[in-house]
Design a protein that fits this description.
By secondary structure, the protein is of the alpha+beta class. The chain contains 17 helices and 29 strands. Helix 1 (about 10-20) packs parallel to helix 4 (about 110-120) and helix 11 (about 435-445) packs antiparallel against helix 13. InterPro entries: DUF4914.
Amino acid sequence: MLEQLNGVILPPAVADALKKAPKIITPATRAELYEMSLGPNGANTFEVTYPIAGHGTVKEADVVRCKNGIAVNYPEDYMRRRDPDCMRIADDRPTDKPRFFDVYGKSFDPIKQETLDWLSTQELIVVPFKAGGLTYGSASLAIVPANTAFFATALVDLQGWTTFEELGEFAPRSILYAAPPFRHTHFEGRQVVVHDRTEELHEIFAYNLYPGPSAKKGVFSALLDIGETEGWLTAHASSVRVTTPYDNETIIMHEGASGGGKSEMCQDIRRQDDGRILLGTNVVTEEPYVITLNESSKLAPVTDDMTLCHKDIQNESGKLVVADAEDGWFVRVDNMKEYGEDPHFERACIHPDTPLVFFNIQGTPNATALPWEHTPDSNGKPCPNPRVVIPRAMMKDVINEPMEIDVRTFGVRQPACTRNNPSYGIMGMMHVVPPALAWLWRLIAPRGDKNPSIGETKDEKKTIKSGGMVSEGVGSYWPFSTGTKVAAANLLLKQIMDSPNTRYVLTPNQHIGAYKVGFTAEWLTREYLARRGGGKIKRDQLTPARCPLMGYALKEVKIDGQLIRPTFLQPENQSQVGVEAYDSGAKIVTDFFKSELQQFLTDDLDPLGREIIEVCLRDGSIEEYEALTPLMA
């Protein structure tokens, strides 16, 4: 085995596999690893293929050298987005996720050994990384076939480049393995990521090469596992410092299910050619509603997707303190359609400091990969999940130190709601909620309408098509958690109650009642909260929402001297919606919450959590939620 690995304390079976491997490469630099992404000869194009018994030679990915990075594309539409049902648990530790044995009727142990045996026959890349970022992260290891160097490059770009010399002697807290052929030989072509946990080691076996469920969310799983044992969380959230034209600063953290607007929270407001902002377009009358905002606030990103709430960075402020759990961001660019929509981000992608890794974006050898040129799926439509892995250091004005959160917003994708087609799209532009309701929304984390980031199961597609809702689960990080829902719910409630000086707001995207709004409502909510100074809103500016789960609606929102149309704040007053359609939507939301919350009522649930859930189950009022957890003054 290579000398660099002598200081790494490995499980015996893993050490044995590495000793048998014909070649082990430990790249000295990120540039060396990047070059390996295009094969041993450094060509302009490279096919990642494997000979598989019974399947012939199977191509898993195409890699193209572009001027500004490599463009990685998958032959199958299915491999271009994360399968929400790909996690399997191999161990006997507490979990509510599908156990490998229960799904396949056999132990994972023989397949685990087969995986290590197969890896022992391959030329391998072994790279260290720190799960959770370079400052607070846990020393970890990735072991992948050499022809999947693009996968390893994306991993270290996300987690941060480190070396064996910098880490010294260590026992990995997590190990990630990639074995693509097993997708075909053992799992009928499905994405499968198997987690095998002990108290000291979290192993991730990735049987596919889309990094979403493994190099990205698989590492998230390890972080959640580590945090649960130590009493802290890694939130599924972005966060940003918003500085108004008057130099007031507000730190906002935005959470929500996939597609809920996390990446968008760190993006500038989109303007029309004449500088005005299109807040929404009526889906019935096609009437546009535009406003004028002379000067918008300055944004400084703090985190993009995985937000570390580590116990060691909390302080006496009474606010949640966060830092970035990643060194690079896996940015979805489906809402970029043409040049000029986000100049700062476009400049970072087109003229990067170091070449980037693009996924599901068209690439031509020696040409520039453009973030708005999305690879067509087999139906001819652009892939809804184009991604760019971009180092956070390349992002304009990025903040590198921990920050105290003033406001936690929660985003929900909403369908249009009209008199003729009632739906749950009844949320106003923003709602202020007490901590109890903030916790309930995070327990449920509705995935919402037309989510672009992941595929849906057959049952979920049926539910959404019929106008129903589906839950992404606790904190919206539940898809990545390997533990139990109640344990996650308790930890999330403790985090909220330990941060009494952080405020909570709900905000929709895509639609407000009968108006198509995209992410503009979220951007304007961000602008309004910042101009209020830390999100402070007086009680006399609030009115109870017609649906108690929405907390309080605002009576009036004025930004830069311009009033937002009141029907955007209380959609039941829109002429195309009305009270009857609103109440139908409220019933959908309320019934959905009631059905999802039942599962948490176990003896292990925090007593306060039980009281909060019982308020919902008996159709309690906003005053009852506030009696349990007062709204911050």
